[in-house]
Amino acid sequence: MHITLIAGARPNFMKVAPIIAEIKRQQKLGNNIVYSLVHTGQHFDEKMSASFFKQLNIPEPDVNLLCGGGTQAEQTGAIMVGFEKYLLQHHTDLVLVVGDVTSTMACAIVAQKCHTKVAHVEGGIRSNDWTMPEEINRLVTDSISSYFFTTSEVANQNLLQSGVKPEQLFFVGNTMIDTLLANEPRFVAPSLYKELKLTPQKYLVLTMHRPANVDDPNKLKVLLTEIINNSKGLPVVFPVHPRTKKVYEQLNITFENLFLCEPLAYLEFNYLVKHAKAVVTDSGGITEETTVMRVPCITLRDNTERPETCTIGTNELIGTKPEAIKPALDKLFSGKWKKGNVPPLWDGKAAERIIESILNFK
Q: What residues does each domain of the chain span?
């Protein structure tokens, strides 16, 4: 069994790392399974790409398609052209795509057109918000995949209702949590932790990159002002996404307790999250990590593709209106934030279940 793994952006790396580790473990047990790793190059920033391979012990990819930059259409086209050339020259039994980035969708399309089966790790999640490029990627990928490895019962039901057959579906858990739990003992404080004299539970972590929050300079300014004004004077550490940085630089504002930094590498960022009073974010993946680490999470979105982080975990969806921030932070500081639990099968063994299932494919 030869599996071709696709990684193109930061979240993908966290999801393929435990799968690679499990393939290697199965090889040592004598099972006939090998893999190739294709990096599409969708993200080319050092801290958003290469550092993840180093920190998570992911081997160098067999090929980097170098398809970063450009519009959604340009990037999709470049990835499809590059991956088709690779796939026509390198036989594989299964193309395994993860998550919901452009690379996920583009490589799934190419594989099926080359008559190669596709397995989607994290299949079935839905935000029902078609303004998100990721939602289109999910819908297209799931409409053509051969097998689905899911993270939740909600995802299972989404797939079954769309016509997926039960025998195509495998409820395995969350590979991103596999990576989190495997690396938690290795978390390390970033240099700014000491520089800012941070202490556990005495600071907030902020991330924002969604267009609805950051593309309009005035909207971004109001959101930041509300967060800072209701943070009880605690330091707010803000690793700035490149998209957000461009807009922020237009604002010409400063806050005494807002500390911007470059995007952090995996081990440093999660150290910061683990010891924070809370995280304010518009990310999806971070809500999963905060749920497992039992860190309060305030999400600045009107919808989420990970509802289990709200119904079971520590996350609360408050929308994108600035006036919702004060009540949420007041609730946090009053000690009334929910404790949360960990969703089923988010136990660090998802990759084991994935590879076990693949070894049994006919």
A: 2-174+346-359, 188-333
| Total-model pTM | 0.95
In this predicted model, what pLDDT tens digit does every residue of 161-184 receive, in sequence order? 999 999 999 999 999 999 999 999
| Residue among 90, 209, 241, 275 flagged as catalytic | 209
Closest CA to 92 of 49, 172, 146, 50: 146
Dihedral of alpha carbons 191, 197, 201, 205, sign: negative
In single-letter form, the type of residue at position 64 comes to N
- Look at the domain 188-333 and name its fold: Rossmann fold (3.40.50)
**CATH, range 2-174+346-359:** 3.40.50.2000
Residue in 181, 302, 137, 282 with CA at minimum distance from that of residue 224: 282
Q: What is the pLDDT of residue 11?
A: 86
Q: Is 209 a catalytic residue?
A: yes
Is-contact 309 338, C-beta < 8 A?
no
Instruction: Count the Cβ atoms, other than its own, within 10 Å of residue 79.
Output: 28
CA distance readout (Å), 346 to 104, 127, 147, 306: 22, 20, 20, 13
Q: Which helix (H) or strand (E) holds 320?
A: none
